[in-house]
Write a structure and sequence with these properties.
36% strand, 5-stranded antiparallel sheet, mainly beta, 14% helix, 28 strands
Length: 406
Amino acid sequence: MSFSIALSGINAANTDLNTISNNIANANSTGFKESRAEFGDIFQNGAFTLAATSTGDGVNTETVAQEFIQGSITNTSNPLDLAINGNGFFTVSENGTTMYTRNGSFTTNNQGFVVTPTGQNLQVYPPNGNGTFSTGTLTNLQLSTAPNPPAATTTVAAGLNLPANATAPANATFSATDSTSYNETTSTTVYDSLGAAHTLGMYFVSSGAGAWKVYTTVDGTLEPPGSTGTSISFGSTGTLSAASPQTLTVPFTPGNGAAAMSATLSLASTTQYGNTFSVNSLTQNGYATGQLTGVSVSGAGVVTANYSNGQTTNLGQVAMANFPDPQGLQQLGNDTWAQTAASGAALPGAAGSSDFGTIQAGALESSNVDLTQQLVDMMNAQRNYQANSQVISTSDQLLQTILHLQ
């Protein structure tokens, strides 16, 4: 009996050493979770067994449990490196098979898909177009190098201050090329439907006593053609009078084949304070063609493409998953796991929501293996192995002694 008991102890110590060696070997594996061998005694219950004289039948490996505690997070320079700070797993797919991982070392393949080091596709919730995401659908995340299309300018907002002490200019006939025919001017860049830039000029001519005329040009040409200006006036508080138009329409037909434009110029924020002309704000809503300059990922897992024209496009939200019992997940290698009956069905969600950690871009989660603890455990497992070997050796000597008694 002592032979089989000691042999079970040797097998258990060997399992312990295998588990520890695997932990140590993966001490630098990104997202790796260490395991721990757990043991229980073997006890045979027979009809004529007296509990006071029973010694048990050895030890059995009950499970090799995974330890899903947080690993340390290390910053990197790759924006597609993602670390989960808290609970949850990334969802990845390979040929239609769904797997889960904590290894956020993502990169792009030759088709622009974001993949793991072993080629699994990162899964995201696709955008709905209104700032939300379709959380009931999973799709592969793909980065496109196609340019961001241009948008024609439709609105311009000017926040200006005109001098209250202005008098009528020397030349009463307005000309954009004659600085003596207007008091103040400013300009901004606008865009047509092909993304070509044009210069919108604004000219202000004082009529005295808070009255002004506004002229607009596009690329130096008066628009609308033949305009005699739009009259505006300011009250005693320096704000635009109620009788003055708040907006002007600036039509323009580009000569490059782009669609005809009709931009609305808002003067609602224009004032007449003090004796100094100033441009406080000048904005417009058009933009040129943009090239992809990079990708950013928010703490909620929203993946955004950034373009050279200042525009951004949401590509998707990283799909997260959690499980009722993560220790029941099946290890597949390459830092991936599969759902099992023991783990329970995957609970989908998004980073930062209930039961899910946040995502840190430009960072990776290190292995949670504590090398110092593993080395101490290895010494204990070695002693257990040696002690059980000694039991077998002692039992052998006792058996030989009995045989020599004859």
